Amino acid sequence: MAEPSEPGQQAAAGGGSPEEEEDEDEEREPLLPRIAWAQLRKVAPGSAVRLIEPAEEAGAASPPKAPDGKLLLPLGSATCSPSRNRAPFQSSPSHRSGFACSVSGITSEMNTFLDDPEFADIILRAEQAIECGVFPERIFQGSSGSYFVKDPKRKSIGVFKPKSEEPYGQLNPKWTKYVHKVFCPCCFGRGCLLPNQGYLSEAGAYLVDEKLHLGIVPKTRVVWLVSETFNYSAIDRAKSRGKKYALEKVPKVGRKFHRIGLPPKIGSFQLFVEGYKEAEYWLRKFEADPLPENVRKQFQSQFERLVVLDYIIRNTDRGNDNWLIKYEKQKEVDSKETKWTDDKESLIKIAAIDNGLAFPFKHPDEWRAYPFHWAWLPQAKVPFSEEIRNLVLPCISDMNFVQDLCEDLYELFKTDKGFDKATFESQMSVMRGQILNLTQALRDEKSPVQLVQMPCVIVERSQSGGQGRIIHLSNAFTQTVHCRKPFFSSW
């Protein structure tokens, strides 16, 4: 009885000699894309080389295991198999194994997060899930193509928003924006925003949240992913099928292709938050059943952090349906324990999601004002607390901190192919104006509703100087009040 072959290789048929097996291996290697073999030699620190056992050999050989007996590729369930959703043609086990490895190799080479190994591990799990047939699921809400990304155990771990499927992208799967573009082109899009830059806005909002230590935006980074469930053009899908067929039937031609499968998509990947519900749901609950005093203070603190974030990035799409609240009702305990609840163990938390329509290059001054819907809540009438002033004011009142923030955003935004430095500087001029207003409002102990009623300001960089590390507002920037208001104004 012949022994089972090594993972990724077929057993010798008919008891061939070792020399014949080596010849067959040498002929089989060029069939895989070059990047797949390069990935086996060069991987990101902390990652493992993933070996996929063909389904046909499941009975003859066990899945590849690490020296400690653990699977190199987690298997979430019996349905998590590379043979699922296979190509239309019947390929050999080595071809399917090589193709799955090549897809992982392409995206793993693009997704390098050496400064954040925890996030890199999450992306690795997402890639592994796609390899074994657990594909991202499209979210039907919203006006763009966004997807719940799962791990091999089919647990949601993130939300991926491809650039090409944004509200005004060419591959947006939602027909509402297409109808809007065809039948009402004069009102199509938002004149103050750059089109198809939402994925950078999502990542930029997290960057601002992290710099100010607000802690309300789930971790968001720019990643590359590829999946059959993404919305691709018919041409891309036809190319993918043709290349797979060429690799199977004409190996000498197929091995010359740089990529075999569908092209990876760039987009924002935001970690999935559990236990949260839309703010609209909890706000109605709070009206009928008021919060305890200690929880009310926690909610007010979280709400003020949301106000600070939205105002700085000038979010043009903040309704009560796209920020989340997690509220864990406190169990019946002694009054002393209730009174001395530690703020670090908050009973209520806010998650600011859907930040893709922010960072405008000018203040809204055409048709709509795009107001902040939280400005009509009763919490917006309460002056900013001392806690938020102590947290934010020392940072935003320092122009060197603001300049560092602009430089960090520059490093993020310049990765886009359509990046324009002049337009980016206009975006930063609006943001600096928002920061200037927020600084004044915090010093004067104003409320959020008074903040949004302040005149719009633009702080532009002076052409003469201000290139050094020490920035002085008087000689490096010029302040301009934006007087033009949109046709439909809310305040």
UniProtKB/TrEMBL annotation:
It is a peripheral membrane protein. Its EC number is 2.7.1.67. Residues 1-12 have a biased composition (Low complexity). It is found in: Cell membrane; Cytoplasm, Cytosol; Early endosome membrane; Endoplasmic reticulum membrane. Pfam families: PI3_PI4_kinase. GO terms for biological process: endosome organization; Golgi organization; phosphatidylinositol phosphate biosynthetic process. Residues 18-28 have a biased composition (Acidic residues). One of its GO terms (molecular function) is 1-phosphatidylinositol 4-kinase activity. This is Phosphatidylinositol 4-kinase type 2. The gene is PI4K2B.
